[in-house]
TrEMBL record, chain A:
The keyword Acetylation does not apply. Residues 1-22 are annotated as: Disordered. GO terms for biological process: mitochondrial respiratory chain complex IV assembly. The keyword Cytoplasm applies. Its main location: cytoplasm. One of its GO terms (cellular component) is mitochondrial intermembrane space. Signal peptide: none annotated. It is found in: Cytoplasm. Keywords: Cytoplasm, Disulfide bond. It comes from Polysphondylium violaceum. The lineage of its organism: Eukaryota, Amoebozoa, Evosea, Eumycetozoa, Dictyostelia. This is Cytochrome c oxidase assembly protein COX19. Belongs to the COX19 family.
Automatic annotation (TrEMBL), chain B:
This is Cytochrome c oxidase assembly protein. One of its GO terms (molecular function) is copper ion binding. Exerts its effect at some terminal stage of cytochrome c oxidase synthesis, probably by being involved in the insertion of the copper B into subunit I. Residues 88-101 have a biased composition (Low complexity). PANTHER family: CYTOCHROME C OXIDASE ASSEMBLY PROTEIN COX11, MITOCHONDRIAL-RELATED (PTHR21320:SF3), CYTOCHROME C OXIDASE ASSEMBLY PROTEIN COX11-RELATED (PTHR21320). NCBIfam families: PRK05089.1. It comes from the Eukaryota. Residues 86-119 are annotated as: Disordered.
Length: 105, 322
């Protein structure tokens, strides 16, 4: 696909592990509800509900609804290393001064 | 043979004149007289084939002149016309001569042979031109066959191009063709030993006017850290009595963020079947790449919207938006 040489936009890629098969028999319904409730309680911050995410994925793998994968590979543990800061203020109407190159902070 | 011809003529000709002494001013008469005089000389003249050039050297002219009556002239004129006609059709109708009487057959054969051996320049030119035309005609036919074959080949290729192109796209995945992948690449762990700020991801599900089922996201938005695998759910309910097969596609807004949004697993681009009066939870496992915080182009992005659209695929394999 031609994006007119716009390097910011890359061609779409398929999902890494493909498509989820549908859970017709509701085998993992419990874990879904637990996860959704956790999100509601924690103001929809996903990093606080990682345990339930892991449980849901485990349930899927056990019931043959997902390819087996090591939990470490997903990268749940890496999140703990991150330092959370405030989002920097960004002015969308910032003027562009010709000839003045801005460096990355 | 010639003596017989002479004897036939002599029956109607007055006895005062002898056939061998007739002389005509017309050029064809030379042929006739030469034929008549051949009974003594050059028997080989009778045996000369059609394709040989006329042998004018064997021409024999009578030495003496005699008186010719009108009756004789008329009779001889008839014979001459007959011979000329026979000569013009001799090349095609040699086989037809066999149907005549023996006498007439021999006479005609004799006359034919006489005519063939003494072909004039005009007639030779005519014959050669006809042969040339025939050759041209055959060449033209050959070329016409080649051109026709080329046209049919190109037409056939253009018809065959449709399935061939489909196969080519499927094998190479050119232009974003969806391919089936047997093996998945190993998962990449993102390095998060750095400063990050959360990004809000909102979820929308779009439906069209004709809605046989309801399709909504379970959570409106989730606050996400870049590099963290996040789980989100969509819920679809089939309100009809028939099982419906649907295919989902997704879209990311803003467009620049699309390259930083990695889906680990989702329910898109694959046919999903929902039984009647059934509710299904469809998960999406995604990661927002940490590079989104570093890239110049994506500076200032704090909200990403993931929107899903469900299409109904009917039996023919076509898609209708639901």
């Amino acid at each position: 696909m031609n994006f007119a040489h716009n390097s910011a936009i890359k061609a779409p890629t398929p999902p890494d592990k493909g498509s989820f098969p549908l859970d017709h028999d509701k085998e993992c319904m419990e874990t879904v509800n637990q996860y959704v409730n956790c999100l509601k309680e924690n103001n929809y911050q996903s990093r606080l509900c990682m345990e339930f995410t892991k449980q849901y994925l485990k349930c899927r793998m056990d019931n043959n609804l997902m390819a087996k994968e090591e939990m470490d590979n997903f990268g749940f543990e890496e999140v703990k290393k991150a330092t959370i800061i405030e989002a920097p203020k960004h002015n969308p109407n910032e003027p562009i001064i010709a000839g003045l190159r801005k460096r990355n902070q | 043979m010639f003596s017989r011809t002479v004897s036939l003529l002599s029956k109607s000709i007055p006895k005062s004149t002898t056939p061998s002494s007739f002389i005509y001013k017309r050029p064809s008469s030379f042929i006739f007289t030469a034929g008549l005089n051949n009974n003594n000389n050059n028997v080989s003249n009778n045996l000369i084939s059609l394709n040989q050039k006329p042998i004018l050297s064997t021409f024999n002219t009578t030495s003496s002149n005699s008186n010719i009556s009108i009756k004789d002239t008329l009779f001889l004129k008839d014979i001459l016309m007959n011979n000329q006609r026979l000569y013009s059709s001799s090349s095609n109708n040699n086989s037809n001569e066999n149907k005549n009487n023996n006498n007439e057959k021999e006479k005609q054969e004799n006359d034919n042979n006489n005519k063939k051996t003494f072909e004039t320049a005009e007639e030779r030119i005519k014959r050669e031109r006809e042969e040339y035309n025939q050759k041209l005609h055959e060449k033209n036919k050959e070329i016409a066959m080649y051109v026709l074959a080329a046209i049919i080949t190109v037409l056939g290729l253009s018809y065959a191009a449709v399935p061939l192109y489909r196969v080519f796209c499927r094998v190479t995945g050119f232009g974003g063709t969806v391919r089936e992948q047997d093996e998945f690449e190993p998962m990449v762990k993102r390095n998060l030993d750095r400063k990050v700020y959360p990004i809000k991801v909102t979820f929308t599900a779009s439906t069209a006017n004709k809605i046989p089922w309801t399709f909504v996201p379970v959570q409106k938005s989730i606050e996400v850290l870049p590099g963290e695998p996040v789980l989100a759910f969509y819920r679809a309910t089939n309100n009809t009595d028939k099982a419906i097969i649907g295919v989902a596609t997704y879209n990311i807004t803003p467009q620049k963020a699309g390259s930083f949004f990695t889906k680990i697993q989702c329910f898109c681009f694959d046919e999903q079947r929902i039984n009647p009066h059934e509710t299904i939870d469809m998960p999406v496992l995604f990661v927002v790449e940490p590079e989104i915080l570093d890239d110049k182009n994506s500076r200032g992005i704090t909200t990403i919207t993931l929107s899903y659209t469900f299409f109904k695929s009917n039996d023919k394999g076509e898609l209708e938006e639901i």
